[in-house]
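Chain and conformation:
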Amino acid sequence: MKKARLYIIAFAIHSPAYALEFVPGDYEMLPPDKSIALTYFQSTRSHAMFSDNRRVFGDNKFRSQATLVRYIYGYRPVPFLSIEPQLIIPWVKANTLADATPLGDTSGIGDIILGLPFKFRLTTDHADIFSLAPYLYAPTGHYQSDQAVNSGANAWRYLLQAAYVHHFSEQWSLDTGADVSWVSTNHRYGVSHDNQTQTPKYEYQLYLRYNLDPATQLGFGGGWIKGAGDVVNHQSLNDKLDTRYLRLSAAHFFTAAFQAELSLGRDLSVEQGFKQDNFLSVRLGYLF
């Protein structure tokens, strides 16, 4: 009985690649006809699980590590528009510990993501940026129907993200974005291979960015995730997400082509699933 209850709560567990977080500065335009190769190293730790905004009794721990490789190309058909096709390939390792051990572990490739952001430079005083970006998650990730923790979702996900970058001055900017995503039906859910889908998932992000100099920037902000309630065989599980999180970031170009970025954070509140006590992301990028 305890395992079944944990399994229901753990529907909120997902690959780190499922959330399409950006860091301050991500929606600035790439130089024309340039590419950037990015590698992310991410780690999370959780020591508590929540259901309906209440902490689940017991010592429920969760650990995850992810490595993501991302390629972006900047195509500039006209001076005010940058079209930036991109590919993201994640590898995920996740472990449940202590009382959460029955949920299982996973290790393997995650769902590959294809994106096509359109970035528009506006005729404002400091050349603000507006972006509209569709993304497609392909069900390429490792998936086992008899466990709650998986690297892949065994379903297609369609995500649309809109972002706006307001430049107050050369030093200060406000980066904000919102996205909504939908998933196809997973026809191999659980040991009985039930049909599972989700209600739309929403995410809002807001970051204040400060440029110390042309090569160094600092960021502070966070986000809010809502929705993504599971529906199995047309029956709602009443497990919609409602998560608020905090992020701090710093990025520096060590050369004209090589950048390193560090992000730290944690969840502030969680309605459903594991609450992140700490989040760490190191990103290395090379512009060519």
